[in-house]
Design a protein that fits this description.
- It comes from Takifugu bimaculatus.
- Residues 505-993 form the INTS8 TPR repeats domain.
- Belongs to the Integrator subunit 8 family.
- This protein is mainly α.
- Among the domains are: 25-160 and 176-243, no CATH class; 323-482, no CATH class; 503-706, no CATH class.
- Helix content is 63%, strand content 2%.
- The chain has 47 helices and 6 strands.
- The strands form 3 sheets. A two-stranded antiparallel sheet has the order 1-2.
- The longest helix has 24 residues, at 602-625.
- It is flat, with a radius of gyration of 43 Å.
- The chain starts with a helix and ends with a helix.
- The model is unreliable at 1-19, 166-172, 228-233, 315-320, 486-502 and 727-749 (pLDDT under 50).
């Protein structure tokens, strides 16, 4: 480098401000006066908390002996001086635990305060709760108070969730240090929690002392270091920094109140104790002129105070009640209207914060969820009040309010407008607030779909006062567009009645009347009047009038137009009434139609008799579906039999009549009739009757020996054909594609959709079980997956193979069995066989959460919600293994381990492998109480010890230490312990997955 360059570098270097070098920890050892000078600096570097860490870190460094073995820290003068320096820094900070807790970790602060106890001559080996503070030297008593204050504060602070700190680059030594620190923290917390009641007792004892307290200062600690304590100065009543009794009591009341509040979630009476301590804190704060030695968050104290009053229903609170107190007292008094009025007033005063208003709404919603009636309207009104408050503050409207606007009604809109009006009743209201409410009104208009409600808003004074003329025009145009889409059949506008009456108007009015009428006599009278005004086909007036295509030609062939219209309309209206289950009007309409057609058409008479039979069948089935146990009258059964035996030619027949007659007979267990007395010709011509006969025969033969189930094979072939493709592409030897039609059975191919419709009209459990069994068997064959087979009852009666497997539509079989089982469970959701089949279907299709839910339901229904033992035929080893796999696939590995005990032979390999998994999505150690197998519990303690998970290891140890699990117990005691845990575990699982 040239001389000029060197000069330039020197000049630049000299122009930069120099950073003072950081004082090293060992310099304080060399110069006794340096620490006090350093701490008096405006911004000392290192900071006081950094110094404490450095001093204690150096004082606790392990030593290495001549044999290269690691030894505990040596108790020499150097280390004692370093610890004393750390205490002197804390004394300079006046033992402010707020600052110390923020800057130091729990292990470091624990070491510091233990050293304070040591130098303050607290008797070693004696529990603090056994000490009499009034007889101890002032600084000794104060050290005990400080330590126990920190103990209960640390318990409270550790309960708050914390974001995990990331160690940065992946370095093993850093990770090891963090892991060690975590283990130390867990161990310290475990001890503090165990001694929490003792710490509270110590502090409550301190509150009984009325004398002033003294705490160590730099001077008193220096005297200790100089070994001048022999003169007794450091133990005298005036040594150290004086803290008045009121100041200490104020701080202790606050800390003890915090621990009691923390304990309130498990002990409701603790909230009352917390309230009393916080009241004392507030009283002492008012009494103190200055609070030099009191370090507490007054906002947090106010929050604690309000929470305690709400939780303990404190009525003798301050004379100056806050808005919080008023709302809480109104809720306790069930004066919900006053709560709503208070929220409306608060929209003007803004004295309640939004989060409090939202929490009140959530409380009411919770009460609704718990089953309290009559609170829905209160929730809606509070939600509206909060939405308007949000608008006033420029916040986004809540999702709950927007959901409310999806189903608006008149009272809701009126209430919204009323609250908006009351929220603007304030002197000197700013234009900004008026504009915000205007935007809210605009949003309301844009969200309302019903025209009458829009008219309510648009006619309100707020709409005119708060919205600009251009905005009103746009909204009115939107309303006109909405009104144009209104159904033309709606009530006409009043101006319509000003039009002079004419023949056209009369016809229109009569046609509208014809559409609405249900009385046959009035329908006939209206048609006569219409035919008198104009001769036309009035059966076309309403395109919703429909009669079955099978009958349309017969009806339209009637020559007299009036009779044609009347027959068509009576039948169409009757069919509509059946579809909406208005069976009384349907009977009136069909009876009138039968009486009419009997006069001129035997064919139509039989048609109406068939339709009236279908009406009665559906009416009775509807009563049964609603819970009626009454059997059908003999007359109805006789009429159904008559229809099934009917041989009248040239009468149009609807297949649905035969279909529902067959399902009616199956549902009422008329199997003998279906198998023995139905004419063969009818069986051959109607596939539904053929299906019914085969089902009835199979159900009859189920109790018999296997070789007698000949009809089961025939039913199998029919269902296989239904689930097969009718045409298949096949490649010839020359490579060209050809079409091969499958041979049809004697009943013809029934479409799968019609087969499903037929099945969904059956209610008889045995018939449904038979069909489920058949389809499950077919499903297993076409899937060809031995490991993941669906189970059902009576599987052994069906064939084990299909000759033409390629022709079967696999997807059709899967869909059919799924639909059938789902339908069956809608009829009886407690049928354990159907539930297991449903769960198996979910399992083989990899829907593990749904499968586990249904397996648990199956166990619950046959054990009175697990209060009894689940039968082994329900929770077989196969079912249990599938439940284990479900839990494993959902990463609920602790649940896997518990379920492994349920097997006849405990599956230790699966259980151990599951417990090795660290990424478990269940509650882990909360399930340890359900484990009764000592081997698994021992493995758990080993795993947690190996990982350094102290708390979890202690939970496992507690579980294994229960006397009822002692392997020396009689077998009956061990079995009872296992059954108790099985029951509790299955109930806990049910609560998780139901």
């Amino acid at each position: 480098m040239s001389a000029e360059a060197a000069d330039r570098v020197a000049a630049v270097a000299s122009s930069r401000p120099s950073t003072p070098l950081q004082t090293s920890w060992f310099e304080f050892l060399l110069d006794g006066s340096l620490l006090e000078k350093h701490l008096k600096k405006a911004n000392p570097d290192p900071t006081p908390v950094q110094l404490i860490v450095q001093f204690l870190e150096q004082a606790s460094k392990p030593s290495v002996n001549e044999q290269n073995q690691v030894q505990p820290p040596v108790d020499n003068r150097r280390n004692r001086t370093l610890k004393l320096l750390a205490l002197e820094v804390a004394a300079h900070m006046k033992w402010d635990l707020d600052v110390l807790e923020k800057g130091l970790t729990i292990p470091v602060l624990n070491m510091l305060l233990n050293e304070l106890l040591c130098v303050s001559k607290v008797p070693p080996g004696v529990k603090h709760v056994d000490l009499d503070l009034s007889t101890l030297p002032p600084t000794t008593a104060m050290a005990v108070v400080i330590y126990n204050r920190w103990a209960i504060r640390t318990i409270v602070l550790s309960s708050f969730p914390e974001k995990q700190t990331k160690p940065g680059p992946h370095q093993m030594n850093v990770i090891n240090i963090l892991q060690q620190e975590k283990e130390m923290t867990e161990n310290i917390l475990a001890v503090l929690k165990e001694q929490a009641n003792d710490s509270i007792s110590v502090l409550e004892g301190a509150l009984q002392l009325k004398k002033d307290f003294y705490v160590h200062t730099l001077r008193t600690l220096d005297l200790l270091a100089a070994d001048t304590a022999a003169n007794g100065e450091t133990e005298s009543s005036t040594a150290g920094l004086r803290i008045s009794a009121d100041e200490l009591h104020c701080q202790v009341h606050y800390d003890v109140g915090g621990i009691f509040f923390h304990q309130g979630c498990t002990d409701q009476t603790a909230y009352q104790k917390a309230r009393d301590h916080f009241r004392q804190t507030k009283d002492l704060l008012k009494k103190l002129d200055s609070t030099v030695h009191v370090h507490l968050d007054e906002k947090r104290l106010a929050g604690y105070w309000n929470a305690c009053k709400a939780l303990t229903e404190d009525c003798d609170s301050d004379s100056q009640t806050t808005a919080y107190d008023q709302i809480n007292s109104l809720i306790r008094a069930h004066n919900y209207q006053a709560v709503i009025e208070a929220f409306i007033r608060d929209n003007v005063t803004h004295s309640l914060p939004n989060h409090f208003r939202q929490s009140v709404l959530r409380e009411f919603l919770y009460k609704v969820q718990q089953g309290e009636s009559g609170l829905d309207e209160v929730c809606h009104k509070l939600c509206i009040c909060n939405a308007i408050r949000d608008s006033l503050e420029g916040e986004v409207l809540s999702v709950r309010f927007q959901q409310l606007l999806l189903k608006p009604n008149k009272w809701m809109v009126d209430f919204i407008l009323e609250v908006c009006t009351l929220s603007l009743e304030k002197e000197h209201l700013s234009e900004t607030l008026r504009r915000k409410i205007g935007n809210f009104i605009k949003t309301l208009c844009e969200n309302l779909e019903e025209l009458p409600l829009l008219f309510v808003v648009s006619s309100h004074k707020l709409f005119i006062e708060l919205l600009k003329e251009e905005e009103r025009k746009v909204l009115m145009e939107q309303m006109r567009k909405k009104s144009a889409t209104i159904n033309l059949s709606a009530k006409p506008l009043p101006s319509f009645f000003d039009i002079p009456a004419s023949a056209t108007v009369n016809i229109g009015q009569l046609e509208q009347q014809l559409i609405l009428l249900l009385e046959p006599r009035k329908i006939r009278q209206t048609l006569i009047e219409l035919h008198g005004l104009a001769e036309r086909s009035y059966w076309k007036v309403n395109n919703k009038w429909e009669v079955p295509p099978d009958y349309i030609n017969v009806i339209l062939s009637i020559k007299d137009n009036l009779t044609k219209d009347l027959v068509y309309i009576l039948m169409a209206k009757g069919l509509h009434c059946i579809s909406i289950k208005d069976f009384a009007h349907a009977r009136q309409l069909f009876t009138a139609c039968l009486k009419l057609v009997t006069e001129f058409s035997p064919k139509l008479r039989q048609v109406m008799l068939n339709e009236m039979l279908l009406l009665e069948v559906r009416a009775h089935e509807s009563m049964t579906a609603e819970g009626s146990k009454e059997r059908p009258p003999p007359d109805l059964v006789s009429r159904v039999r008559g229809y099934l035996e009917m041989r009248i030619h040239d009468v149009p027949l609807r297949q649905v009549v035969g279909e529902e007659c067959v399902t009616f007979m199956l549902n009422w267990r008329e199997n003998d009739y279906l198998t023995l007395q139905v004419p063969p010709s009818l069986v051959m011509n109607n596939p539904y009757i053929k299906l019914g006969q085969l089902l009835a025969s199979t159900c009859k033969e189920l109790p018999g020996p296997k070789e007698s189930r000949r009809t089961a094979k025939e039913l199998w072939e029919v269902v296989v054909q239904i689930c097969s493709v009718s045409i298949q592409h096949k490649r010839n030897s020359d490579g060209r594609l050809s079409l091969i039609k499958h041979r049809e059975s004697s009943m013809g191919i029934l479409q799968r959709s019609k087969f499903i419709t037929f099945i969904k009209k059956i209610r008889e459990p045995l018939v449904l079980t038979t069909l489920i069994s058949l389809l499950v068997r077919l499903h297993s064959i076409v899937r060809d997956d031995i490991v993941n087979e669906v189970t059902a009852e009576h599987l052994s009666i069906w064939p084990s193979s299909i000759p033409n497997l390629q022709a079967v539509d696999v997807e059709a079989v899967a869909v059919t069995v799924t639909e059938l089982v789902s339908y069956a469970l809608t009829l009886n959701s407690n049928n354990q066989s159907w539930l297991i089949t449903q769960a198996d279907i979910y399992f083989v299709t990899n829907q593990y959460s749904a499968a586990l839910n249904i397996y648990l339901q199956a166990g619950a229904v046959c054990s009175d919600f697990f209060t009894k033992v689940v039968p082994s035929d329900v929770y077989s080893d196969q079912v249990l293994k599938r439940m284990i796999k479900c839990c494993s696939m959902m990463n609920c590995h602790t649940q896997v381990a518990v379920l492994c005990q349920f097997l006849r032979e405990v599956d230790y390999m699966t259980a151990f492998k599951a417990l090795q998994e660290q990424n478990s999505h269940d509650a882990m150690d909360s399930f340890y109480d359900y484990i009764w197998d000592v081997t698994i519990l021992e493995y758990l303690t080993h795993i947690h010890h190996k990982r350094g998970e102290t708390e979890k290891r202690q939970i496992a140890m507690k579980a294994i230490g229960q006397t009822e699990l002692n392997t020396s117990n009689p077998e009956e005691v061990l079995q009872l312990a296992a059954q108790k845990r099985k029951k509790r575990f299955l109930q806990a699982m049910a609560k998780l997955y139901f």
